[in-house]
Amino acid sequence: MKNKLCALIGAGVLAAGLAAGGPVQAQDTIKVGILHSLSGTMAISETTLKDVMLMLIADQNERGGLLGKQLVPVVQDPASNWPLFAEKARELIERDRVDVVFGCWTSVSRKAVLPVFEELNGLLFYPVQYEGEESSRNVFYTGAAPNQQAIPAVEYLMSEEGGGAERWVLLGTDYVYPRTTNKILRAFLNANGVSDDDIMENYTPFGHSDWQTIVADVKRFAAEGKPTAVVSTINGDANVPFYRELANQGITAEEIPVVAFSVGEEELAGLDTAPLVGHLAAWNYFMSVDTPENAEFIEKWHQFIGSTRRVTNDPMEAHYIGFRMWVQAVQQAGTTDVDAVRQAMYGQKVRNLTGGVAVMNVNHHLSKPVLIGEIQADGQFLTVWETDDVIPGEAWSRYIPESAKLTADWTFPWVCGNCEEPRFEASF
After folding, report:
1. What's the mean per-residue pLDDT of the chain?
2. 231 and 171 in contact (C-beta within 8 Å)?
3. Closest to 278 measured CA to CA, from 152, 162, 147
4. DSSP letters along 235-289, please?
5. Contact at 8 Å (CB) between 57 and 8?
6. Residue 101 near residue 35, CB atoms below 8 Å
7. 3-class DSSP state for residue 297?
8. Is the separation of the CB atoms in 48 and 316 below 8 Å?
9. What separation in angstroms does the CA of 60 have from each of 23, 54, 324, 335?
10. Using N-to-C axis directions, what is the helix angle for 314-333 and 292-305, rounded to 10°?
């Protein structure tokens, strides 16, 4: 398996360096771009997404490839550098002539590449939870929208089952995803009778490491007597010192529960999780989910990566769903042409790893289940709450007045990502 991984990485590097007239001809292969940070502050989260894409591509090639051709990965490392994401995206589409790209983690990286994909009519599958308030004909959002993660998590913590929180601490990394998500959450909380006096909001830079003062501020805020919860949109390796400081200051889940939207099994693998038992995360998938589909996926992952110690997580499942849907859409369209594949994507269904069926909707968002899990001492999550069925992702939040009236429908002939209502012209 390690040889297979090395061979695939080599193939990706080779493909990235080949001109159109090189040994591997474009007409003989289908190139799949992989755009994830393999260095810098986001490497802790993104490296495993590169690895799972290599696994999915290898698996598809073992099935006979796609349209009678082998898939070739083209790997680029934007190194957690947001302008570099745009440069690497342009290289993938213009120079490397990839047919599709799977990549990005942070919203700032997605925002950086978005103009490139729209200008060059490329196709990006984005696998991570995000803030919504966006709809592009060139992006399929396979991670959670706020109504599939942030809102259900806060509703759970407000409930009697979740502890009945009345005061809220919104901690985030200082960029678009945390700020926009918290704008939506503040509007949601206000609509449910929570005053701004009962909401504390704080942002820190990527890679922030000194959490002593902020955690002490959280303790003082919670000392007012009302049940308090922390909503964390902290991203990347800043989570390691944040959770360590929680433990240092004796903050337990019983006292002040923390629900995270960017901490999964991969991030917990680098922590001593024993003091964090009981804190929460909201995702659409956990490695601990007991289904045949998940067991098969984990077994394939361990075989491919050559280690049973490597975990799986939610963005990996999102890549799995997105990749399988893209393969089905290409097969249905009979081509990798972006416009044809885009139309074939609508209504695609793939069995997710939690036992249900993921559906791609015309707003480029999936229908997904929502799960809330408690951190366990072994770094896994125990699911404590989940939706009865899949929830369609919403591109525009109903809690933001200017967004509530917007719709997103990219089907032909009605092609609009941010219109108030569809207007059709009849022609006879």
Report:
1. 91
2. yes
3. 162
4. -GGGHHHHHHHHHHTT--TTTS-EEESS--HHHHTTS--GGGTT-EEEES--TT-
5. yes
6. yes
7. helix
8. yes
9. 22, 10, 9, 16
10. 100
Domain range for 200 is: 147-261+392-403
Alpha-carbon gap, residue 98 to 116, rounded angstroms:
14
Instruction: Reply yes or no on whether the pLDDT at 12 is more than 60.
Output: no
Q: How large is the average pLDDT for residues 74-88? A: 97
pLDDT at 421: 56
DSSP SS3 for 202 = strand
* Under 8 Å between Cβ of 138 and 71: no
Contact (Cβ atoms closer than 8 angstroms) between residue 55 and residue 122? no
- CA 365 to CA 375: how far, in whole Å? 28
Query: What's at 37, amino acid-wise?
Result: S
Average pLDDT for residues 321-341, to the nearest whole number? Answer: 98
Write out pLDDT tens, residues 296-312: 999 999 999 999 999 99
| pLDDT score, position 228 | 98
CA distance 188 to 191: 5
- Tokens 């308030």, located at residue: 133
pTM, whole model, 2 decimals? 0.88
CA distances from 378 to 268, 275, 308 (A): 9, 11, 14
The CATH number assigned to the domain holding 187 equals: 3.40.50.2300
The answer as to whether 422 is a domain residue is: no
C-alpha–C-alpha distance, residues 15 and 20, integer Å: 10
Give how many domains the chain has, as a whole number: 2
**Residues contacting 102, CB < 8 A, separation 6+:** 32, 33, 34, 35, 49, 53, 124, 125, 127, 319, 322, 323
pLDDT at 4 over 50: no
Q: Token match 């495993």: residue? A: 48
To the nearest 10°, report the CA torsion of 283, 289, 295, 298.
40
Same structural domain, 165 and 202 = yes
Residue whose entry in the numeric block shows the structure tokens 């901690």: 171
Nearest to 261 by CA among 406, 358, 154, 162: 154
Any bridge partners for residue 203, and if so which? 172
Report CA 11 to chain centroid distance, whole Å. Answer: 26
Residues 181 and 314 grouped into a single domain: no
**pLDDT mean over 317-323:** 98
Are residues 134 and 223 located together in one domain of the fold? no
